[in-house]
Amino acid sequence: MIIVTTPGISDAELDHIRERVETLGLRTHVSRGERRTIVGCIGDERRLEDAALLSMPGVESVTPVLKPYKLASREFAAEPTVLRIGDRAGATIGGRQLAVIAGPCSVEGREMLHRTAREVRAAGATLLRGGAFKPRSSPYAFQGLGAEALDILGEVRAATGLPVVTEVMDTRQVELVAAHADVLQIGARNMQNFSLLAEVGRVQRPVLLKRGLSATIKELLMAAEYVMAEGNRDVVLCERGIRTYETATRNTLDVAAIPVLKAETHLPVIVDPSHAGGRASLVAPLAFAAVAAGADGLIVEVHPCPEEALSDGDQSLTPDAFAALMRQLRPFAEAAGRTMPEGALPRGEPHESAHAAGREVAA
Ligand code: PEP
Ligand code: MN
Question: What fold characterizes domain 2-64?
Fold first, then answer.
């Protein structure tokens, strides 16, 4: 149930409404916007049927929410959610400024992470990514450096000021990863690991939730609801391509998911063009499409030497290609009514990879 309050409602009136709802056994969630305040009510809505809420001072309207996700739904929030990450000015996700998260698929060592972080920061990235615990399809593939990688991420954050995003795969690691990372990534393969979702819902760290390989948009939103229902409201959704019959790309980027999600939820929506395309030459065109379609940001894999990468080298950009991408993103961001991160490189010539990708697919 959504209670929209009248403009200029007093604190006492608001408290009174909340008390009334809570005495009837429901929980309340208040979202204050610039012009109006919304009280979301979670629980058995039938108990509110005879509560005459409309007669209470400060109540403008009362509307049932029929969707299975409530806290994540647009109706529950007065404004789109804007997350401030870490303590770095400008590291926001949501809002007008495009968020750009960049870095290697996996943290492979100290030197490579320092170098990648410096280079992506110089090009305008606002957050650093790097896997410590990796969900690999084969148990014999490189699984990440684990706790050692978390220490390296912390070191590089201190050196560059970039907040760090890293994946947590297991409920037993949540505390450890949360102690080192600014954002907890839930990978596509764990999007419906409900105990993991609940566990990250109990820590105060923003969560980057990636869409499952075969998950519908509704399932993604319900996964976000699992996190939010535990108290952590700071969730970012990530479209990273879904599995379809198409084999020309690693996954099929569902561009339509961006406007659909933006209409359904107040949470920020970002796109991972690297895991969607699976090839470096596809990253720029998919990133352009994502930003043009209204994405709040991007997460991009960048490696100092992709051919030597221990995971996802094929889809990793070199630092130079990433810098070129940042230059070329600007007109797309501006066309979508967004600003580039402060410090992002100025506009450059059309990026060769956008055209190269076309040739490669046609060949
Ligand atoms: C990753 O970000 O490196 C990753 C494993 O992504 P996904 O969970 O989307 O496959
Ligand atoms: Mn990867």
Answer: Alpha-Beta Plaits (3.30.70)
